[in-house]
Amino acid sequence: MEDHTSIQKAQSASTADTLMKDLQSLGVRQGDVLIVHSSLRSIGWVAGGEDTVIQALMESVSSSGTIVMPAQTSDNTDPKYWKNPPVPEEWWPSIRYFMPAYLPDITSTLGMGRIAEAFRTFPEVKRSGHPSCSFTAWGKHASFITDHHSVDFAFGEQSPLARLYELDAAALFIGTDYRSCTAMHLGEYRANDGRKAFKQGSAMMENGERVWRVYWELEETSERFNEIGQAFEQEIPVATGSLAQSACKLIPIRPLVDFTARYFNGLSKQQSD
């Protein structure tokens, strides 16, 4: 016999149907292209957990739409940049030598959350080839978004972010904020603010062999993303709502990327005056 707590939990649980109704109220429609940033914990108790959330997202946009999620593997990077925690310099050569190669079908995400990690394992989900900054995608435009992801400048013009910009996609925050909004990195890349490029490295497969590949990346300043997002919302309307207990936002990517680039350009001009 079920106890009283279990019955109460079942009665208050979110289901795929209730989540789909919430997404529809937020403004999600069939055919939409969404990059999703999510916190499962923020949603509350869901019957079926992260799998149910993913299924609700897929059903909401349908096969005519597309769901995208970041699938980053930031542990597969040059150890000389590691800070949380740092490792002794004498370890660096061994880490570069023994780090397993990035394998799109196998390599787990790091720090992306349970929804993003489960999403990469779903049938027909495709994953881009960048060894540390990959993206996963499902739906109509999945291949267009994930194919030809340049190793150099992972968030630049030859990235899934630029393809999302072309498709006039939206970013969906589920219990997250602008600090996790990967699309804003495209705005950083497009800003003419004098930021520096640097050499990064990762283990990956090339011509059937595991190699340590050195490539170019651009300095990032994501600690300003919430500040930029707040300024953006004063100019551009953003849809707000909830997914069960989670506060949500639905944000058009094109104006956000453009605003981000202008914002960084303005900061650069202020510093040079």
Molecular structure report:
The protein has one domain (4-73, 110-193, 223-272). It is globular and about 55 Å long. A 7-stranded mixed β-sheet has the order 3-4-2-1-5-9-8. The protein is of the alpha+beta class and 273 residues long. It is built from 11 helices and 9 strands. Helix 2 crosses helix 4, helix 9 (184-190) crosses helix 11 (253-272) and helix 10 packs across helix 11 (253-272).
Uncertain segments are 1-11
- Count the E strands: 9
Radius of gyration over alpha carbons?
20 Å
Order of helices and strands: HHEHHEHHEEHHEHEEHEEH
Structural class: alpha+beta
Q: Which word captures the global form?
A: globular
Specify the number of helices: 11
InterPro entries: Amioglycoside_AcTrfase, Antibiotic_NAT-like
EC number: 2.3.1.-
Pfam family, one: Antibiotic_NAT
Catalytic activity: a 2-deoxystreptamine antibiotic + acetyl-CoA = an N(3)-acetyl-2-deoxystreptamine antibiotic + CoA + H(+)
Briefly summarize what is shown.
With 273 residues, the chain is an alpha+beta fold. The protein is 36% helix and 20% strand. It has one domain.
Structural descriptors:
about 270 residues, alpha+beta, two-stranded antiparallel sheet, disordered N terminus, Amioglycoside_AcTrfase, EC 2.3.1.-
Summarize the helices and strands and which ones pair or pack.
Layout: H1 4-12, H2 16-26, E1 33-38, H3 40-43, H4 49-61, E2 66-70, H5 92-98, H6 114-119, E3 126-127, E4 135-139, H7 142-146, H8 160-166, E5 170-174, H9 184-190, E6 197-206, E7 209-218, H10 225-233, E8 239-243, E9 246-252, H11 253-272
EC number: 2.3.1.-
Keywords: Acyltransferase, Antibiotic resistance, Transferase
Pfam family, one: Antibiotic_NAT
